[in-house]
Amino acid sequence: MATYVIGDLQGCFDELMELLAAIEYDEQQDMLWFAGDIVNRGPKSLDCLTFVKSVEEAGRGKMVLGNHDFHLLAAYSGLEKYVSKSDTLVDILQADNAPELIDWLRRQPLVVKHDYLPVAMVHAGIPPQWTVTEALSHSQEVEQHLQSEHWQTFIREHLFGSEPREWQDTLTGWERIRYIVNAFARMRYCNDQGKLEFKQKMSPAQAETMKKNYQPWFAHSNRKNKDHEIFFGHWSTLGAVDAYNIHATDTGCLWGGELTAYCLETHTRHTIKCKMQCKPKKKS
What we know:
alpha/beta
């Protein structure tokens, strides 16, 4: 049995099938973990979502919610201002079983932990001030709202926005929930107290300017979650990184790069190249 952590799919279903064939995936034995952003921008979002749902419901997989998965929940909830020309969500929204797919998606976590290995997965990252145990607890705070009967009101009225950028244990209400979502689903850079910086999306090597004391979330010396191996996606410009006890799994398939599966048991990366039809015209 093997456990594979797979980076952002974003609708790249053909590449996923090719990658699973390359690793000789055994659906009866192997586990698949998906690091969020299952849908959007790529050509086959419905196929990706349907496959991940089937694997999770069979007890052979896990996923965490990414920013594009939240985008799908927003579009389904009627937030048209979050629907752009580059989105590829129509096939899901118009599917006969769209309510079933969405109901399943909104019940997925933001952070998961391995049952016995010191391994956790999140879409964007875990702020340095949180242990993995605290991160799991904060994930559950958000999940309670997503899984309630009023989840669409939560999505429409309270989820989106970049404030507050700084965490305090005394944060309450929707400000607390919004910071948690932004940290887990959007973060790249922050300071050592977890103050978020959203403007810079390039890798540290490519970034021209950076505010004082801001680093990649995983690079802070005071990080309380470095006792676990953290797997994450979201940051395609970062590329493949296996350092700081973290593993970056978004290797830019959507942008013409590669789709990655990292095997926990062998500590091995497996990749396949993107097919050209999966590459959007403009990166954003």
